[in-house]
Design goal:
By secondary structure, the protein is α/β, with parallel strands linked by helices. The chain has eight helices and six strands, in the order βααβααβααβββαα. Helix content is about 45%, strand content about 20%.
Amino acid sequence: MIEDEFFKDKYALLDVNILSEMTKSKRAEKFRSVFEFLKNNNIEIFLTDSTCFEFVGFSRNKTNYDFLKNWIKKFPIIPTRENDIKLATLISSIYKCCHSDISPKQISYCDCLYAAQIVKFEGRAFLVTTNIHDYPVSLFDIKKISIIEYDGKAVFVAFMAYNERKWRELKSKFENSGYEKTIATLTL
């Protein structure tokens, strides 16, 4: 794996699944090592407003809603901007173009917004997630994996980072896609 030097003084976007793991009362303490790693490397944590929606919005009841709404306030939250939505839409289309087997249910709108932030920050930020399948390695690099063991099971915490070469290649592939069908349609 990559030296911790890669992470120093960067920004970490937390995926909603890592937040969910951190608020499970029996597991919360196990994730302390993730926060210690971030703190020891002078990494600033942030969330998006879509993270708040996804994290708080599916509360089971009012007590849970209030708890999660207050708990999430400890993190800086950045708003989703129009350019973020455009980039997320492009990323979603690139995923589908390059991975035709991806189901629309597999990668959510919020996951594409998170991916957009990582691409937008161009290497100054990375994503912390427990579900690498939402962020194809054809676009992102897994820079670090921490294994959290709990009750005989393992949760893998991945630190996903932007890869400029992969981004350029996939974007180019997407931008050059579809011409065969268009030309065939025009010649008929």
